[in-house]
Amino acid sequence: MTLGFMPLPPPYSQAGTSSQRFSLVTNFKTFTTMAEIFVGPKETRFLVHRELLTHHSPFFTAALNGSFAESISQTVKLPAENPAIFELCVAWLYTSQLDPLVFFKDGKPAYYTLLNLYALADRLALEALRNQTIDQISDLAEQTNSVLTPSDTRILYEEIRDNAPLRALVIDLFAFKKTDKLLAEHPDDWHPLFLRDLAVYLKRPGTAALLRHSLQPWRPVSWQVTKACDECSRVLEPGARASACVSCAKVYCLRCLQRGEGRAGFETGTCRPWKGGRCRLYHEHRETEACQDLVMGRGGE
Ligand SMILES: [Zn+2]
Ligand SMILES: [Zn+2]
Ligand SMILES: [Zn+2]
User: Fold this and answer.
1) What is the 241 CA–ligand 1 centroid distance (Å)?
2) What are the tens digits of pLDDT across the range 112-168?
3) Which residue ranges make up each domain of the chain?
């Protein structure tokens, strides 16, 4: 995380330029105006610093900096939105974080809350929030070894746009995890388009051996970008020949690769693209900077 004297991206009015993380420490002095947001049919009122909204969201930039009536009164009405979900969005604006505890209900992951948050972040053009929601879903699926429920797939296919990378993440979770029993035996109906997408994905040539890593040659060019072998933990010195999985970003030294050869699928833990490949596969970075810590092969060949 970068806290420091980071200048704000200059023209707020141009969508696609707010690529940097908002720093509360250096930018409090610019927090001069509040915007009033009325959410839901009962017009629940939220007071939010305008600079936070316009920094992150081209939607709010247009609404609050333009020549519309809203920009003069600094009010925005969102009658179709859910105040509880908008509240999560406001908490994120002020903290740049999602509280993982919020996404559990009765000890189970509340994916539906995250899906609704993603849908809201999409409508409000909050790219960074969408990416963090992707991370939260990935972490939750990993920690609790769970996937979405049939009713979650309805939100995914009815509330969220067709080309959202969130759909790719969910399909990967079902494809790479052991979900055959769950799919076959769950008493509720999965969304038919979800089942179609999953079937097409599983039948696509080249993904037949889904549990395998997709290994490609990789060499660390310096100590800064090197990694340890995920099998034997030996740190790879710069220039060392190794292989990395383009999906999950796991790295294997030559010795482990040779020993692994011949073993079924080189099963050193199955491939989980949402662990190492989430930025490349499921994030969007049209308005925000790519996450360097998760980019695969940076500095590699
Ligand atoms: Zn992999
Ligand atoms: Zn090794
Ligand atoms: Zn990213």
Assistant:
1) 18
2) 999 999 999 999 999 999 999 999 999 999 999 999 999 999 999 999 999 999 999
3) 215-279+287-294
Amino acid (one-letter) located at 46 = F
Instruction: DSSP letter for 190, please.
Output: P
Task: Return d(Cα 138, Cα 148) in angstroms, integer.
Answer: 11
Q: For residue 37, give the amino acid letter.
A: I
State the distance from the centre of ligand 2 to the C-alpha of 231, rounded, in angstroms.
5
Which parts of the chain fold into alpha helices (H)? 24-27, 50-56, 58-65, 69-73, 83-95, 111-123, 127-144, 150-158, 165-176, 180-185, 192-203, 254-260, 273-276, 278-282
Both tokens assigned to 52: 């936070």
Helix, strand, or coil (residue 78): strand
Which residues lie at CB < 5 A from ion ligand 1? 213, 245, 247-248, 271
